[in-house]
Write a structure and sequence with these properties.
This protein is 23% helix and 39% strand. It is of the alpha+beta class.
Length: 119
C-alpha cells in the first residue's frame, strides 16, 4: 500500500492511500490569523469548507472528487443553516454525508467537517 501525506500551510494534513484522500476534520480556523472565525454556524461552516478546499487543491483535487463527508455540530437545530452553507461548495449532487450532534468540539467551535475524496 502506498501512503502519501499531504500538508498545506492553510490547513492540517491529509493522507492519500489506495486511491482515496482522507482529510482530517477541519475546524473554522482562519489560516491567516490562526484564530477561530465568528461564532455563527454559517460562517464557521464556510471557513471549515474553505480549509478543506485548500487541502483538496494541494492534492490536485476539487469538491467534485469528494465521495463522503462527516459534519459534527454542537446543536442539530442549526442543521438547515449549515446545510445551506455546505451545499454551496458543490456543483451537483452532494456526496454521501453523515451529520452528528456532539457535546463539544476543539476550541469550542460550532462545526467540524472531515471528508474522503477519490483520487
Amino acid at each position: 500500500m502506498s501512503v502519501q501525506y499531504i500538508h498545506t500551510d492553510n490547513a492540517p494534513q491529509a493522507v492519500k492511500a489506495n486511491g482515496f484522500l482522507y482529510i482530517s476534520g477541519q475546524i473554522p480556523v482562519d489560516p491567516a490569523t490562526g484564530s477561530v472565525v465568528e461564532a455563527s454556524y454559517s460562517i464557521q461552516t464556510k471557513q471549515s469548507m474553505a480549509n478543506l478546499a485548500a487541502i483538496l487543491k494541494e492534492a490536485d483535487l476539487t469538491f467534485a472528487d469528494v465521495v463522503k463527508t462527516t459534519i459534527f455540530l454542537t446543536d442539530m437545530a442549526h442543521f438547515p443553516e449549515v446545510n445551506e452553507a455546505y451545499a454551496a461548495f458543490f456543483e451537483g449532487p452532494c456526496p454521501a454525508r453523515a451529520c452528528v450532534e456532539v457535546s463539544r468540539l476543539p476550541k469550542d467551535v460550532l462545526v467540524e467537517i472531515e471528508l474522503v475524496a477519490a483520487c
